[in-house]
Amino acid sequence: MRAITWSCLIGLGVALSGGGIAAAAWHGEADPFFEMQEVYEGQRFPSIVVTTEGTVLAFRAQNAPIEVRRSEDGGETWGPIIEVGGGEAHLGAAVVDSESGDVMVFQGRRMFRSRDDGETWEEEDITIEPDGFGGVGSTHGADSGITLRHGEHAGRLLIAARVLGPEDDNAREWWPYHYNSAIYSDDGGSTWRTSHPFPVLGTGEGAVAELSDGTIHYNSRIHMATDALRRVAWSQDGGHTWRNPAVAEDLPDGPRGTYYGCMAGVVRLPLEDEDILIYSNLDEETDARQGITVWASFDGGETWPVKRLVYEGPSAYSSLAVGRDDTPTEGLIYLQFEGGPGGMYSALQVARFNLAWILDGEDLEGYLED
């Protein structure tokens, strides 16, 4: 078994900043743990979050009302399907307001809110203001949102989003006019503003993570790239503008045999001063959607030296979340993804695992010790 040691972590710029079981677990100092179970048959489009109370919520919706299942024991068991509402559109993204505890989820430009940890839901009238080009961000295909923790924008809700060009159309002829963006709210989710565009055209479906210094990492799918690699950019103003676009040389944008890409997940582990990120997507050399895999970064998304296969069979879209300390989810990472033995869109699975399990995977750059 491979394991990363404290000396190796320090060599990567990672230093233990808090005592106790939680800090050790988030640093990979625990027995490797992995478990996967099917939570839905059929439909598509995952979004998974962990509430402030430590309840795991797994959503789905494919041109139908949004549905959610709840787990109050860290993902070991799941309650019945709860209908959130909506219909006739695909699922957007969910976000937990870490200050109020409210959970919000989008379908198209409709938003539903729960004030009781996901048990009941109400549709809420909201405003989403356009960007300077008239584009209004839609969260379909985005990973779940975040609450910012640092600086003047602390408390802001931020979700990756997309603008489908001037015709609001996902037809291939309009791909060159698509661009990613984000939507954000400074009033608890009543009003939202669309950010400036992600600085690469042809993008769509992204994920955001806030680093320990308040920098926002944006990780995006791109429909038209021949290199089959993700695009990244950064924000220093709470997600309003995006700078320094780059190719993520370590991260496949879905199967490497296709230009089309795939929705992916990105999440940061809840450490005080370290920036350990987890990324999920397909790791396949052909054009087949299969081989859902997770990668780990120890430098805020600059490099991704470790990866581990989650499921080798048919798989597609994915969403990531992390647990909360002092709840049954402490130390755990949650991956909801499309796939299973019946095909890539046959079911939705939830895998739960810890960093130690990822570190027992493939060492890509010599960072792990045998």
Termini gap: 7 Å
- Overall radius of gyration: 19 Å
Order of helices and strands: HHEEEEEEEEEEEEEEEEEEEEEEEEHE
Q: Could you tell me the mean pLDDT?
A: 92
Task: Return the domain count.
Answer: 1
As for the CATH topology, it is Neuraminidase
Let me know the largest β-sheet: 8 strands, antiparallel
> How much strand?
35-45%
- The residue fraction in helices comes out at under 10%
Give the structural class: mainly beta
Uncertain residue segments: 1-19
The number of helices is 3
CATH architecture: 6 Propeller
> How would the global form be characterised?
globular
List keywords for this structure.
370 residues, 25 strands, 3 helices, Neuraminidase, five-stranded mixed sheet, single chain, eight-stranded antiparallel sheet, mainly beta
Which secondary structure elements does this structure contain, and how are they paired or packed?
Layout: H1 6-11, H2 20-26, E1 34-41, E2 47-50, E3 56-60, E4 66-71, E5 82-85, E6 91-96, E7 103-107, E8 110-114, E9 122-124, E10 127-129, E11 146-147, E12 157-163, E13 179-185, E14 191-194, E15 203-210, E16 216-222, E17 229-235, E18 243-252, E19 265-268, E20 277-282, E21 290-297, E22 306-322, E23 333-339, E24 347-353, H3 355-359, E25 362-363
Parallel strand pairs: 10-14
Antiparallel strand pairs: 1-24, 2-3, 3-4, 4-5, 6-7, 7-8, 8-9, 11-12, 12-13, 13-14, 15-16, 16-17, 17-18, 19-20, 20-21, 21-22, 22-23, 22-25, 23-24
